[in-house]
Amino acid sequence: MGPLRIRLLNDQWLTTVLWSGFVRIVNNEIIILGNDAELGSDLDPKEAQKALEIAEANLSKPRVRKIWLKEAHSRTS
């Protein structure tokens, strides 16, 4: 997930959020292949802030337990 700003031919900017995808830049040409995107003007700031807080909380959770459980299960199988 990340912001994507596109400068239009009339020198105005279009702000979007690209949820996932790939970008390829070759010979001053950009190709964007995305699974989902939203215009910045369509986003609700309160919902976006809540989603950010949830994502940050999930990043801070330890993942060691899941790995340990998988290793313990594979030893008993």
Task: Give the helix/strand layout.
Blueprint: E1 2-7, E2 13-26, E3 29-39, H1 45-60, H2 64-76
Antiparallel strand pairs: 1-2, 2-3
GO molecular function: proton-transporting ATP synthase activity, rotational mechanism
InterPro entries: ATP_synth_F1_dsu/esu, ATPsynth_dsu/esu_N
Written description of the protein model:
With 77 residues, this protein is of the alpha+beta class. The chain has one domain (2-76). 38% of the residues lie in helices and 40% in strands. β1 and β2 (13-26) form a beta hairpin. The model has no long low-confidence stretch (mean pLDDT 81). InterPro entries: ATP_synth_F1_dsu/esu, ATPsynth_dsu/esu_N. One of its GO terms (molecular function) is proton-transporting ATP synthase activity, rotational mechanism.
